[in-house]
Design brief:
316 residues; mainly beta; Neuraminidase; 2 domains; 5-stranded antiparallel sheet; 4-stranded antiparallel sheet; 1 helix; 44% strand
C-alpha cells in the first residue's frame, strides 16, 4: 500500500470510529432524555368547585374566581363555565348557570326543590340537571330552562341531601347516578327504569363510566375508591391502607386521566393539607395539590397537564 492510500485508509478508519462514537453518544443522550422525561414533574391546572369556585393555574395561582359556592361544574370547550350552584339567597333551591369568563350569564336554572347537585351540557342548548327533594329526579331542559323530560330516581326520601350526587348522561342515552345513603350506583333509562346497579361499601359520590365499560366510584366517608367491571365485581381499589400516609379524608370528586391515572379530592382535609391527589394504577402518588383555604374541594376538572390541554371529554 502506498503512503497516499495508507493515509486515506487511516483517515477513513478515524471517521468510522468517530461516527461510531457519535451514534453511541446520540443513543446515550436519547436514553437520558427519555429517562428524564419519565421523571418530569407533573403540573396541572384545574377548575375547583366547592365553597370557593376558581380556576387554579399550573403554578398554583388563582387565575379566575366566581363569587358563589358550587356543587359541580364544567369548563366547556368554548371557554364558558357551566356551574351547579349551592343553595344561597339568590338560588334558595340551588341552581345552574352557564357563564362566560367575564361573568356574563348565558343560561340560568332555578332549582325547584331542596338542592341541585349536578349539571351537564349534553348538547348545544340542552342540559341535564339533578334535583334532590321530595321528588328526586333528573331533568333535561333547554336553554330557556323549559323542561324537556323528567326522570324519577328510585331512592330514599327522608334525607334529601343524601339522595344523589354526580349524575352523568351516558353515550347510550342512559343516566349513571351515585346514590349516597342507599349505598348504590344505578343506571337509569330515559323513562326511569333501572337497568344496572352495584352496591358500594360506603356513600357513593362519583360514578364514572370508563371506555372499557368499567365504572370508577368514589365512596366519600369510606375514604375508598373502587373500580368495578360490568358485572359489578371490584377489579381495583384504593384506600389509605395503600398509601404511605392517610391522604384520603372524604373522597368526593374524581377524574380518570387518559394515561390511566386517577385524580380525586380529599374534601374534609382542611387548610394547608393535601386536597387533590393523583395516583397511578399501581397506586403510586405522582401529584398533589395543597392550599391554605379552610374549605375543601368538592369536585374538580383537570384542564391542562404541563402546558398541554386535555383532549376529548373529561372522564369525571
Amino acid at each position: 500500500m502506498d503512503s497516499q492510500n495508507h493515509s486515506s485508509w487511516h483517515s477513513l478508519k478515524n471517521v468510522r470510529q468517530r461516527k461510531g462514537l457519535t451514534v453511541i453518544t446520540g443513543l446515550f443522550l436519547t436514553l437520558s432524555a427519555a429517562m428524564t422525561g419519565a421523571q418530569e414533574k407533573i403540573n396541572h391546572s384545574f377548575l375547583a368547585l366547592g365553597a370557593k369556585t376558581c380556576i387554579v393555574s399550573e403554578d398554583g395561582q388563582i387565575a379566575w374566581t366566581y363569587p358563589l359556592g358550587t356543587r359541580d361544574g364544567w369548563a366547556l370547550p368554548n371557554g364558558h363555565l357551566l356551574l351547579t350552584l349551592s343553595k344561597c339567597d339568590k338560588f334558595p333551591g340551588g341552581g345552574v348557570v352557564e357563564i362566560t369568563r367575564e361573568g356574563k350569564v348565558l343560561f340560568e336554572y332555578q332549582g325547584t326543590q331542596s338542592e341541585v347537585n349536578t349539571s351537564e351540557k349534553i348538547s348545544e342548548g340542552k342540559f341535564m340537571i339533578s334535583e334532590a327533594g321530595p321528588n328526586p329526579r333528573l331533568l333535561e331542559v333547554n336553554e330557556k330552562g323549559k323542561t324537556i323530560s323528567s326522570i324519577p330516581l328510585t331512592c330514599q326520601s327522608t334525607n334529601h341531601h343524601m339522595q344523589s350526587r354526580m349524575a352523568r348522561k351516558l353515550s347510550s342515552g342512559n343516566y349513571l347516578v351515585p346514590q349516597l345513603l342507599d349505598k348504590v350506583v344505578r343506571e337509569y333509562t330515559p323513562v326511569g327504569k333501572v337497568v344496572w346497579e352495584v352496591s358500594t361499601p360506603n356513600w357513593a359520590f362519583t360514578a364514572i363510566r370508563l371506555p372499557n365499560n368499567h365504572t370508577l366510584i368514589n365512596c366519600t366517608a369510606g375514604n375508598t375508591i373502587i373500580e368495578v367491571d360490568a358485572e359489578g365485581k371490584t377489579v381495583w381499589q384504593l384506600s389509605n391502607d395503600d398509601l404511605s400516609q392517610p391522604l384520603i379524608n372524604d373522597a368526593c370528586g374524581g377524574q380518570r386521566l387518559a394515561n390511566g391515572n386517577t385524580v380525586f379530592t380529599s374534601y374534609h382535609i382542611g387548610a394547608n393539607r393535601t386536597k387533590l391527589i393523583e395516583v397511578t394504577p399501581e397506586k403510586k402518588v405522582v401529584w398533589t395539590y395543597t392550599d391554605n383555604f379552610p374549605d375543601g374541594i368538592h369536585e374538580f376538572q383537570i384542564l391542562t397537564t404541563n402546558g398541554k390541554k386535555l383532549e376529548g371529554s373529561a372522564l369525571r
